[in-house]
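FORM 7B - TANDEM STRUCTURE REPORT

SECTION 1: FIRST PROTEIN
SEQUENCE AND TOKENS:
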Amino acid sequence: METLAIIISMRIAHYERASRESQALRKNKMQAQSVQEKVHSQMLKAGSKVYFFDVKKASNGSNYLSIAESYTKKDGQKVNNRLTIFKDNFSDFGNTLLGLKEYFQ
């Protein structure tokens, strides 16, 4: 009976260790996926708002544009908004912005 108890406790310890290792691997994988390589970055201050233009490399190797807007509301709450433009849509997005330029002259 003691041998069975020892085997069971060894199995439990093995499963607990494997579970901890699996959780650590998942956490590391998620952290690695959330870190994209920045290719280029520019910042624009416009009054009380700050805009960040970041060209990043996606996991498939292609670049994309991330535009972030950051400001603080009157009540002190910080607001962050983000827009992502992928390589396939970048040309159309840019052309649309250029087409709107005439309305700001």
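SECTION 2: SECOND PROTEIN
SEQUENCE AND TOKENS:
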Amino acid sequence: MSTEVQNTTSSQHDAKLLVSGSFYRYDAVQYAVVDQWGDFVSPEIPNPKIELTKFNLFKETKKGYWIGHGNFWDERSLKSQAKWVSKTSKKRFAYPTKKEALDNFIKRNEKRIKILKRQLWACEIAVSNAKSMSV
């Protein structure tokens, strides 16, 4: 990953770099709609939107990155708002390129579909078994 070093500090445990850069994450979101009575409800036809979230890279360590929204000028707010992302993990919260983030979004949702299909199948079997029971 290409990053621009702004300032360097060191500690005994690991070297920390204040860097500039971005990380990305795609998520599918579906917003509620307002019905005729003014209540928020789920839409009749699913219409998810794919949204890209951009995170600022704040610190890089030997093993990962600290990312988050906005600028982290205050160390206390960093600890409450930042998210740590591993450099070596197969699954990460966010990725340094939009392509990697989109590929991960697709993999996450394919896995989710597989899990939900299996759960639906199990529910259908359970309902069928329940209907054949006598009380």
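SECTION 3: OBSERVATIONS ON SECOND PROTEIN
The chain is about 30% helix and 35% strand.
The beta strands are 4-9, 16-20, 22-29, 33-34, 40-41, 49-60, 64-68, 83-86.

SECTION 4: SIGNATURE
Preparer initials: ____
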